[in-house]
Amino acid sequence: MNNIVLQLLDRNVESSPQKVAIKNNEGAWTYQQLFQRVSDYASYVESLGLKIGAKIAIIQHDSFDAVAAFLAIIRQGFVACIINPDLDDIDWRLEHCGVEEVIPSRVSESSETPSMHLGDHKRPAFILFTSGTTGHPQAVIHRHRDIQIMNKNYGEKVLGITKDDVFYSSSKMFFAYGLNSILFALYQGATVELAMQEPTMNQLWNNLSKKGVTIFFGVPTVFGSMLCADDIPDKLTLRHCVSAGEKLPQWIFDEWLSRFNSQIIDGIGTTEILSTFVSNLPNKCVSGAAGKVVPGFEVKLVPYSDEYFVLWVRGDTYHPAYLNNTKATKDRFVDGWFVTNDLFTKDSDDYYYHGRVSDLINNNGRYASPYKVEELVLMLEGVADCALVDRDGLSLYVVAKGRGCSVLKNDILSIIADHSGLIAPEIYFVDNIPSTPAGKKKRYLLSRAT
After folding, report:
1. What does the pLDDT read at residue 133?
2. Cα–Cα distance for residue pair 79/110, rounded to 1 Å
3. Close Cβ partners of 411 (under 8 Å, ≥ 6 residues apart)
4. Which of 367 and 233 is assigned the larger pLDDT?
5. Assuming Cys at both sites, which of 71, 133, 191, 224 could form a disulfide with 166, CB separation 3.0 to 4.6 Å?
6. What's residue 352's pLDDT?
7. What's the rounded Cα separation, in Å, for the pair 132 and 185?
8. What is the pLDDT of residue 165?
9. Contact 438, 219 (CB under 8 A)
10. Which numeric CATH code is attached to 5-354?
């Protein structure tokens, strides 16, 4: 398939033109209406007179028009560069990627549909930036065929997505995880429910329980906040709840299972690979585990310390470079493998995620993952969030809720002493833990100066 839009849009127009493709709080649009709006944007980008392969930026919040613009750009043989409109470094990103035009949030209607550009399925289709969890974000190019491969390997073989599914994602389309939820749906002829820009937890619950959503893509921080909301429904009709981005705390998995008799499918993927490549399987999830290798991918564990291994991954969605960053490319793309810098262990069945190399703490001369301690602390009543970092000594940053800090501090020190074998950290109470828009903790921003 030379142009992935043939599968994402054209074949659905032929088979189910009146099927709802995209909906949100403002309305619902069929595949036929989506095709027409894509035609409008295709006419616009053709009028720019750019050479095939030119980079065109989308700097918008998620909307029907943003999806149409994305499809139009890659349909006409250009490269879509998706950028979070709320960032402070947009100009740098535009220059870094060599963007030639920024597509407007609205274009005029067109009476014509330009011819689709058909070319090599290995040519670039879009650019995404990594989340910048450990520092400066990197730009990653993905190809037309990568969209098909991730749908075949993960969407079909793991999640079993069908045309009857309705997707909802807490992550936005300028992140791979959010974009993938849209691409999964369109590839199968299913429906996407686009999220509000900043929904409250009660609004999020309302969307999941009253809008026919069958597959929800969330991240651990969102799942945790949802379980702390005031108004939680008694039951859900979701087929799958999927988590990625960071390790899913065991208490979230267990409480979700207890409330809804439904497992959260935890897994790990990267922007560099585009797809989830290690995942639990529906109805066969192991609490605390990242799961098994997704079909179509290969991983290996490279020793890092006595206890932990760095996971390397390769597969057909692998693109062997960052855009315009030779040094980072040399460090992370090695002999056909992507070096994730994520720490793992493995038992006879499953892989277990322990954070990133940069997350490790020094506990009396031995490396330790902060996740074990954080999960212990999160089990305490009165702790909304926390992060353990090693910055010239161990520091635990805690977001408290509804309890006195002095009493809570004693409880935290007690549970750490009893269960972790960790030397006592300094404890700091903060209003929030800094995170990326994707919900990943920015541990590098935490310091003892708080």
Report:
1. 66
2. 22
3. 380, 382
4. 233
5. 191
6. 96
7. 27
8. 98
9. yes
10. 3.40.50.12780
Enter the DSSP assignment of 152: I
**Per-residue pLDDT reduced to its tens digit, 49-95:** 999 999 999 999 999 999 999 999 999 999 999 999 999 999 999 99
Q: How far apart are CA 439 and CA 442, in angstroms?
A: 9
For the stretch 352-404, pLDDT in tens is: 999 889 888 887 777 888 888 898 898 898 888 899 998 778 899 999 987 66
Q: Do the beta carbons of residue 138 and residue 64 sit within 8 Å?
A: no
Element spanning 223, H or E: helix 220-227
Within 10 angstroms of residue 74's Cβ, the number of other Cβ atoms is: 24
DSSP-derived 3-state class of residue 401: coil
CA 385/CA 378 separation, integer angstroms: 7
CATH fold for the domain made of 360-445: GMP Synthetase; Chain A, domain 3 (3.30.300)
The strand pair at 394-400 and 426-429 is best described as parallel
- Give the type of residue at 76: Q
Burial of 399 (0-12, 13-18, 19+ CB in 10 A): middle
Cα 39 from Cα 45, distance rounded (Å): 10
Classify residue 365 by its DSSP letter.
T
| pLDDT in the model for residue 401 | 81
- Please, which residues have CB within 8 angstroms of residue 189's CB and are 6 or more apart in sequence? 11, 12, 15, 16, 19, 31, 163
Its pTM surpasses 0.70: yes
Only one residue has tokens 């995880």, namely 177
pLDDT for res 123: 94
Buried b (16+ CB within 10 A) or exposed e, 238-248: bbbbbbbbbbb
Alpha helices in 48-164 (DSSP H): 64-75, 90-97, 144-150
Q: What is the DSSP string of 4-65?
A: THIIIIIHHHHH-TTSEEEEETTEEEEHHHHHHHHHHHHHHHHHTTPPTT-EEEE---S-HH
| Length in residues, the chain | 450
Domain chopping of the chain, boundaries = 5-354, 360-445
Confidence of residue 447 (pLDDT cuts 50, 70, 90): low
H or E element at residue 343:
strand 337-346
- How is the beta sheet containing 27-30 ordered, strand by strand? 27-30, 20-24, 191-193, 166-169, 215-218, 240-243, 264-269, 276-279, 292-293
3-state SS track over 275-311: CEEEECCCCCCCCCCCEEECCCEEEEEEECCCCCEEE
* Dihedral angle, C-alpha 38, 84, 138, 5, nearest 10 °: -10
Cα distance between residue 128 and residue 140, in whole Å: 5
